[in-house]
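hi! just following up on the protien thing from before. the input was this:
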Amino acid sequence: MQSQILPSRSALVDRIAMQFEYGQSLICLVGNSGLGKSYLAESFITDKYSDFSKAFIQLSAHSKDVDIIRQLMEHTFRAPLVDQKLSLTENFFVLNSEQPAEPCLWVLDGARHLSDELIQELQNLAVRAPHTLYILVTAQAPNMLPNALDIHLEPLSHAESKQLMKMFFTQLPPDDDPIFKTFITEARGNPSVLLDWKQEEQQLDLRADSQPKLKQKHFFIAAFSLILTLCLVAALYNKQLLDLLGEKQEVAKQQTAILSEPTVLEAEQVLEAEQVLEAEQVQPKVDVVSKVAKHAAEVQNKPEQEQVSAVLSALLSAPTKSAMNSEMAVDTKKHSEVTSTELAPEPDEQEVEQVATALQPTKRTESSTDANVQVTPKNTVHRVDVSHDNQWFLLRSDTEWSIQLLAVTERKVADDFIAKHALPNIKVAEVRRNGKVWWFVTLAPFAQLDDAKLARGNLNAELLAAKPFFKRISQIKQQIQQSQ
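and the predicted 3d structure came back as:
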């Protein structure tokens, strides 16, 4: 047993051990914060059941179910291979089938950090464990673990409070000291408050002078003077800045120059020059179109190829862009000294296509439609996968059971497995874990665990070699909801 433990706490340790021996496998030690639940749990696991496999886990807000399961299995079995995809009960039974466990004692400090799923697993395992398994959990409120025996930890009495302080402090004031007596009374038997006693802070020095108050007064006066000086400097600087800004604005107004507007005569000259340029830009394009139309009329009675060749030659014989550009540049220089203008573009490919299309016979369009026939591929095979049964699981009762036969990350493997064995009542659950999709192939439903055990005994040797195990429908529903 740990040193420095009070007689009442030692008796409570013996009472917890007696309840375990009477057949209670799950006990919850209930008490307010600071009453010494953790210290009592450490004393219990140190003093009792020396031949058991023991595990003491200090829970916190950052504790995860996966880490708690791994620590419990490592303290119970030798070098276990923990499967993070399985629950606490499933891991326990799988590892126990490989290497039977010795009698175990688990102490979990801080039940408020346990999830509802893990609490249910602890209750289930305390009842179904094949060997002796004692579970002690500490909590601040009763009924945090249903079906568990709550043992309440009471505060210390006045005498035990003094006895506890004498164990940890060598020098204490006399019992009739008013400050010490008031401290013990206000502690209300809470060990954490009693052990926070500090002798130097509980003494009152009546001879203390007023020097600290005088120093504080001087400090406040100096700070106020400094702040007032800074405010005056900031006001003067702001005034100088505003004066400088006003001077710069006045100088800028004096230097502003008035720009002269263009006269009416200059505007008329510019408009006349623009009209002349527009007329000269349109003229080359009109000449090209008239030339093409003339050649089209001449070769109308000729064969199709000769008609197209004649039209194309007429287009090619039109004046090029560079020649038109040079002529336009000379003309614009004669009329006015206006800035650079855009020249007329040469006949583009779109105009050539329009003229050639006009000369094509209508029969060509009829023949072209026959070529646009879409050929659809034949013998196309679509593989249809069996859909999952997640909605079926969500509608089932939480008290029903299933037998998990297979868990894979490839749907093809699950489909081949189902096609190979052709078992009745096959249900497939699709669950997402750690970014991967898993498919659980199960046999379901079974109203009771005994029905599931009977169905497992009827499986063939190949399926039994894969070690199928039992799984509650409620757990599958929770995994489906988490993946959604």
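The first helix runs from residue 7 to 21.
The first strand starts at residue 26 and ends at 30.
cheers
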